[in-house]
Write a structure and sequence with these properties.
Strand order of the largest sheet: 3-2-1-4-5-6
Order of helices and strands: EHEHEHEHEHEHEEHHEEEH
Distance between the termini: 46 Å
Number of strands: 11
CATH class of the largest domain: Alpha Beta
Number of domains: 2
Radius of gyration: 21 Å
Number of helices: 9
Helix content: 25-40%
CATH architecture of the largest domain: 3-Layer(aba) Sandwich
CATH superfamily of the largest domain: NAD(P)-binding Rossmann-like Domain
Amino acid sequence: MKRYCVIGLGNFGFHVAKTLYEDGHEVIAIDLDRDKVQRIKDHSSYAVIGDATSKEFLKSQGVGEMDGVIISTGERSHLSTLVVLHLKEMNVRRILVKAVNEDHGRILEKVGATDIIFPEKDTAIKIAHGLSSSNILEFIPVAEDYSITEVAPPSHFVGKNLIDLDLRRKFGVTVIGIKDVLTGEFNTLPSPSHVIKDSDLLVLIGKTENVEKACREQ
């Protein structure tokens, strides 16, 4: 079990707090809005009304001892920037912030945020990639132009082993896991001699455009 604090309990913050709590973690939820705090109180370890821009308040709630803090203050970009600054000074290990826009994201990085979240952008990219390739089942951006992608094997993969496919040399793409949907067995870093079956799901990492090209190319 880890300890998290969620600051800002709009829809995004509410669902982050609720999910972390349901996953068995300790969650402190903070907002100035009494109604939002009431809404989350049964889905968190502790919900409190308070001003997270006050460093003394954050210290009083033990926020500096958290494994991670998630900040979602809506369009009030100056508030999240100030909170990040306080958390950085308190040596919080992981600070995740919902950014208003790209410029705000760059400012947050400068003051100490470890993870910048663009929910609408990330969701849009994920949906678009899913529509672009019928084989892509899950898409997770991990860095600029890179992603971890779960794919159903294209027909030209089936019956070949990883040596035959030679994805790393041809496309710069690495298979980091294979799951057999019939047995539920999951292999991490599978053997190069593994023969792809149509019941396999492949987890690939590489440049997003190269993953798509590998799945598309016959």
